[in-house]
Design brief:
Layout (H helix, E strand, L loop, with lengths): L2 H4 L3 H12 L8 H4 L25 H15 L3 E5 L6 H12 L5 E4 H10 L9 H10 L3 E4 L8 H17 L3 E5 L3 H8 L1 H10 L1 E4 L8
Parallel strand pairs: 1-4, 1-5, 2-3, 3-4
Helix pairs in contact: 4-5, 7-8, 9-10
């Protein structure tokens, strides 16, 4: 019998056992093990983009996604421009998946304004204030197809109001258009364009259409 071991206090023997059984390196975090989540239906993200998706590993896609996430993570306003079919909506959907898959909102510009106009009827189910409040306060807002709108003074004021509230609250916004940079600025106006330049920047997505 080892008499020296008999004199070691019990709590020290327990500590030695814990050290001996400890893993050699730091345990992998739960977050690292967790798979990418499906995007919730209430976000408004189209069904095509909601299921988990294997992201490309090429440098171009990774660089663009990194730029988008940098702006989103900082609470900025990011503009995505380029030709149709180059993957702009997919990039925005993946940003929602990474940042807030359950508490974000996706809408097209036309869908936004039609939804507002529906509140003017007698059988309305929500008010203009309800919609503006939702779009101003959701964790991430994506507004797609911005070029498909009437560019009326009413639309301009409403869009600027929503973006300004999100800008003040440092809530991220992604605005998508099938336009070049100069046309995007003209479409959005100076107020929104200056906030994009300050907080997130315009990212041009190039390459051939994935739909071809």
């Amino acid at each position: 019998m080892n008499q020296a071991a008999d004199h070691i206090p019990e709590f020290l023997r327990d500590l030695e056992e814990m050290i001996a059984n400890a893993p050699d390196g730091p345990e992998e975090s739960t977050e690292a093990k967790r798979p990418a989540r499906d995007i919730s239906y209430p976000t408004g993200v189209p069904k095509r983009y909601r299921p988990e998706w294997d992201r490309p590993t090429d440098t171009a896609w990774s660089d663009n996604f990194g730029k988008v996430m940098k702006g989103v993570s900082a609470g900025g306003i990011v503009g995505l421009i380029g030709k149709r079919g180059t993957g702009k909506t997919r990039l925005a959907a993946e940003a929602i998946r990474s940042h807030a898959p359950d508490s974000s909102t996706y809408t097209t510009a036309m869908g936004l304004f039609l939804r507002i106009q529906s509140t003017y009827g007698t059988d309305k189910t929500e008010s203009t204030g309800d919609i503006v409040g939702e779009l101003s306060q959701c964790t991430t807002l994506v507004i797609d197809e911005v070029q498909e709108r009437g560019n009326t003074p009413w639309e301009d004021r409403l869009l600027t109001h929503i973006i300004d509230k999100r800008y003040g609250a440092k809530l991220p916004t992604v605005i998508i258009a099938n336009l070049e940079a100069a046309a995007m600025k003209q479409c959005l106006g100076d107020s929104i364009s200056s906030r994009i330049n300050e907080t997130g920047g315009i990212i041009e997505i190039t390459g051939k259409s994935f739909r071809e």
